[in-house]
Design brief:
The structure holds 3 protein chains of 3 kinds. Chain A is built from 20 helices and 2 strands. By secondary structure, chain A is mainly alpha-helical. By secondary structure, chain C is mainly α. The chains are: A mainly alpha, B alpha/beta, C mainly alpha. Chains A and C meet through helix 3, helix 8, helix 9, helix 16 and helix 17 of A and helix 1, helix 2, helix 3, helix 4 and helix 5 of C.
């Protein structure tokens, strides 16, 4: 059977009323947990595993995949509306999205996120259907040296989110990198900066830092400022929907974001976040109005949102074709397969065509359902903003602490949340951007581990980064992005811009 | 169909509540309620063991309601510490644990050891497998041995985190082959397939993992299994044992279940017999088959004795590797 | 806010960044040597980060001294009591979570935060807080099978 007829067969499985219902339950649940900070699809699927023990495997897997896709949709909502990312993959979305919401353009931001998610989810699923074997080859060619080069590239992308003052952005990045040092060093098994607290041995969870800096810090900042900002935030100024201009500015970022997010999602140690950073950088570099970035540029929502949804599809490539999990959610999905006595991998396509192709077909359907579900919700979500501020922010605090507590069922995380929240508050007061701190926390440990792994494997020979062609390409690209623009200006004889990049990492 | 539909709706509404509703009607209720702690995040190995035990106990009619709670962190030592202090003397609590916890107690220098809780039973185990990518020039374990003799550090071993089961196995093999600990180039990868990707991509020489985890890649021919760490050959992985290959090492990543410290002898008996009945039941046996795990049931005093030996063995390896002083 | 004060904030921020860098350098140097043989040990990256932070901190301090007034970021006007209210709510929740349970702890956090935003209607806040925390509790324990501290309501749910 060729791919196309397999897919058609898959649709015949996925379109049965019962499987449609599973998909609907999945995407609805996924959207809901995606909205809540700290509660993600991985946890939800894990907790639902025992419940589905006696159910039909195809239906259950369709539901789980729906939760995964739905979680990626939902995460952007709180990022945009209340500057509180629901998932770490939507931190970048908050940068421009929240600025848009503050300008009364929240509906347009939510809409471009929803349509972009649909476009990217569909592009990603098409790529998953037809390009999986090729993608797998690319993904496997990434070893530790290549990953380190990719991290270098991602660090360059961070320069795009440093904000007005490069020095302050660099300081925030340093804070994130420093927080990332806490915990057991994986390569040597040694504990670093754990101060004898066993709860710190596993490091500080990204969720605690993201929720602390953004949700708690933001709430404190709004609280101390509320007397001085008498202007009630307006839910909608102008049109409810995306304008013609918005469409024109969004469609290219959707596709570019998909193209960036999908392959990065397929990488065994990529993750959804890196794609969003790179997409943001791309949009900022390509934009005709780069000065709008930081003040609510719709491209900065459209691109990263597309990237994180495409990466969810990308994750399924190694999962289905190799049985290789690349994210926490994917690892749980493997556990789900195993619960039904199935082992994802090349044989699964042969032994369980109904399940695999039904699952893939359900992704197309689930994506469509998510669009239909989320577009009408846009109108409802923006009304969140007209909830009186005391109730809105009090509610945010309850959910922020709930999400944090349920990570490890530990009060230690609440203490960390408070400390990081206060830190976030003070950083906000002196106008230090917060995103670099979270990015530093995510990228720092990965970069360190991959760097040391690469050198362990090469027995200390540092040339690996330059002799591996892929690694060399990535490093050259990073170098070009870093020194290219100033060099170009130098050649053209223009004066140096005010916010030149100062070296950091 | 109707029944399935009804279940579907039930899942949507009550998610977890459905588990408890089926098959509790058996007459003999030995225990009213029980709590099982999984000292790991939902979805992980210990969590799965805890939840399978929950199902086996409930559906076997042995305990009316079983609650699972997760206290993840630091290789299970955070859960262990909490369990040992808060559960003291309570005969209605159990905790899942295993070999990884023994290692974590040593490497993290944890304040609460496994001796502070009451061993109930060893439940399951998973043997380890050594693999190379299909394209590798290493065809057999002997080829690997030869490579190790020529240039030991050129052989990059990929496995899980430092001090975990995989690392311990590599340490044991190295010792048996007469390698210096500094000659073993072990590269730890975080879970979730990173090591698998590095092996499939040919970035490392040899990989170590639980046999079940990579069984499907071995069966499809992408990975070649060189040896397994069991005493007898395994059913689902065709490879000789380490012992057959001249390395006297046997290692199973075992999981067991423990009760709180200071419980009465009667409570201990009740828990042991409930667990034993659950393990013999169809629900548990079915799960073992599905997950490809080996039944290593061993109860009470025999388990306690095993624990003592295993602790000593693990501590020695970790000292050799340099993770424990 | 007067420029001098802005500069003081900036300078003190720079000093803090500098001292975090210093603390990392000192902390990592006191880490015992590991017996595990590795190409790159566990101290290299922390030292790089420490050096970078010290450099950035120093640069911020220097800039705050030579900064032209126009370059200084504005420090916004702020009230202190709301900050203390939110802080108090969070700290109360930390203390109460495992003793009084999720519902009570979260209700107090909610009330404190609402008050920090100038809410005057205590009755409305209590009702909303209880509805929200009970709904969250029920959704999590019954819906997802998570265990949240029940407090005195152990028998109700």
């Amino acid at each position: 059977m060729d791919t196309f007829s397999s897919l058609m067969h898959g649709f015949s499985v996925a379109l049965t009323p019962l499987n449609l219902l599973w998909s609907l339950i999945g995407v609805t649940l996924g959207t809901a947990v995606g909205v809540l900070p700290g509660i993600g699809p991985a946890l939800t699927v894990a907790l639902l595993l025992p419940v589905t023990f006696n159910l039909d495997p195809t239906g259950s897997m369709i539901m789980f995949a729906g939760i995964y896709y739905g979680g990626m949709y939902g995460g952007s909502t709180t990022s945009i509306l209340i500057n509180t990312p629901g998932e770490s993959a939507t931190i970048v979305t908050a940068l421009e999205g929240n600025k848009m919401a503050r300008a009364g353009r929240g509906a347009a931001a939510l809409a471009t996120a929803a349509v972009g998610s649909f476009v990217a989810g569909t592009v990603g699923t098409v790529a998953l259907t037809f390009l999986a074997p090729t993608m797998v080859k690319v993904a496997l060619s990434f070893g530790p040296a290549e990953y380190f080069a990719l991290m270098v590239l991602a660090f360059v992308a961070v320069t795009a989110v440093l904000g007005q003052s490069v020095l302050k952005g660099a300081a925030a990045l340093g804070v994130g990198l420093a927080l990332g040092l806490i915990g057991i060093d994986m390569q040597s098994g040694q504990a670093r900066f754990t101060f004898g607290v066993p709860e710190l041995l596993d490091g500080i969870d990204v969720v605690v830092v993201a929720v602390g800096l953004f949700a708690v810090g933001e709430t404190m900042f709004m609280a101390v400022r509320h007397r001085f900002e008498t202007e009630q935030m307006e839910a909608i100024k102008g049109s409810l929907w995306m304008s013609r201009e918005d469409w024109k500015r969004s469609w290219k970022p959707w596709f570019r974001g998909s193209a960036i997010g999908f392959p990065l999602g397929a990488l065994p140690a990529g993750g959804a976040e890196i794609g969003t950073f790179l997409s943001y950088l791309t949009e900022k570099k390509l934009s005709k109005k780069p000065e709008e970035f930081g003040n609510g540029a719709i491209e900065g929502v459209a691109g990263p949102e597309a990237a994180n949804n495409a990466s969810a599809a990308g994750t399924l490539v190694p999962l289905l074709s190799l049985g290789l999990p690349t994210t926490a959610t994917a690892a749980i999905l493997i556990a789900a397969f195993q619960q039904f006595g199935l082992n994802p991998g090349p044989q699964l396509f042969a032994t369980q065509p109904d399940l695999v192709w039904g699952l893939i077909a359900s992704l197309y359907i689930g994506n469509f359902m998510l669009l239909v579900l989320n577009l009408p919700l846009v109108g409802m979500w923006v009304r969140l903003l007209v909830i009186p501020k005391p109730l809105l922010y009090a509610g945010i605090m309850v959910f922020a602490t709930l999400g944090t507590y349920t990570l490890n069922n530990s009060v230690v995380d609440l203490v960390l949340l408070y400390g990081i929240g206060v830190l976030g508050f003070f950083l906000r007061v002196i106008d230090v951007p917060l995103a670099p701190a979270v990015i530093g926390l995510i990228l720092g440990p990965m970069a360190e581990q991959q760097f040391r792994r690469a050198l362990s494997i090469s027995q200390g020979d540092g040339s690996v980064f330059f002799t591996h062609p892929l690694s060399l390409c990535l490093l050259l690209l990073a170098a070009a992005l870093l020194i290219g623009p100033p060099l170009w200006r130098l050649i053209r004889g223009r004066p140096e811009p005010k916010h030149a990049f100062h070296g950091e990492d | 169909m109707k029944k399935v539909l009804a279940r579907t709706v039930a899942v949507a509404v009550f998610a977890c509540a459905t588990v408890g509703l089926s098959g509790v009607s058996m007459a003999e209720q030995k225990l009213e309620s029980l709590k099982i702690m999984a000292p790991a995040s939902p979805g992980g190995g210990w969590d799965q063991t805890a939840r399978s035990m929950q199902q086996a106990l409930q559906e076997g009619g042995l305990v009316k309601t079983v609650q699972v709670n997760n206290v993840p962190g630091a290789g299970g030592t955070i859960g262990l510490a909490q369990f040992a202090t808060q559960g003291k003397g309570d005969g209605k609590q159990m905790m899942v644990g295993g070999m990884v916890m023994i290692g974590a107690i040593k490497t993290n220098n944890a304040p609460v050891g496994i001796d502070s809780v009451t061993p109930i039973a060893r439940l399951t185990g998973e043997y380890e497998v050594l693999v190379v990518p299909a394209a590798s020039e290493i065809k057999t374990f002997d080829d690997l041995k030869k490579k190790l003799k020529e240039a030991p550090r050129a052989v990059a071993w990929a496995g899980g985190s430092a001090g975990g089961t995989d690392h311990i196995l590599v340490g044991l093999i190295g010792k048996e082959l007469g390698l210096k600990p500094s000659d073993v180039n072990y590269v730890p990868f975080s879970g979730g397939g990173e090591a698998l990707a590095a092996i499939l991509g040919g970035h490392v020489t040899v990989g170590v993992s639980g046999a079940g985890e990579w069984a499907s890649q071995i069966a499809s021919g992408q990975l070649r299994a060189l040896a397994v760490s069991s005493a007898e050959r395994l059913k689902d992985v065709s490879a000789p044992t380490l012992k057959e290959s001249g390395v006297n090492v046997e290692l199973a990543n075992w999981r067991g279940i423990f009760a709180a410290p200071g419980i009465s002898a009667k409570d201990k008996e009740t828990l042991i017999s409930a667990v034993e009945a659950a393990v013999k039941g169809p629900v548990w046996q079915d799960t073992l088959v599905k997950r490809g795990q080996t039944d290593l049931f061993q109860k009470g005093d025999a388990f306690t004795a095993f624990l003592k030996d295993d602790q000593a063995r693990i501590e020695t390896v970790l000292k050799d590797i340099g993770l424990v002083k | 806010m007067p420029q001098a004060q802005v500069r003081r904030w900036e300078a003190s921020f720079g000093v803090k960044v500098l001292s975090i860098g210093g603390a990392i350098a000192i902390g990592i140097s006191s880490l015992p040597e590991t017996a595990v043989v590795q190409a790159v040990g566990p101290k290299v990256f922390p030292l790089l980060i420490a050096a970078a932070m010290m450099a950035v901190g120093l640069a911020i301090v220097i800039r705050s001294m030579v900064m032209k007034n126009a370059d200084a970021a504005e420090i916004p006007a702020m009230d202190v009591p709301p900050f203390l209210m939110v802080s108090g709510g969070l700290l109360a929740q930390i203390v109460l979570m495992e003793h009084a349970g999720f519902i009570i702890a979260s209700t107090i956090l909610f009330l404190a935060t609402a008050r920090a935003f100038g809410s005057r209607s205590l009755r409305r806040d209590i009702i909303v807080a209880l509805v929200l925390s009970v709904a969250a509790y029920a959704g999590f324990t019954a819906g997802l099978g998570l265990t949240l501290p029940a407090g005195p309501f152990t028998d109700v749910f």
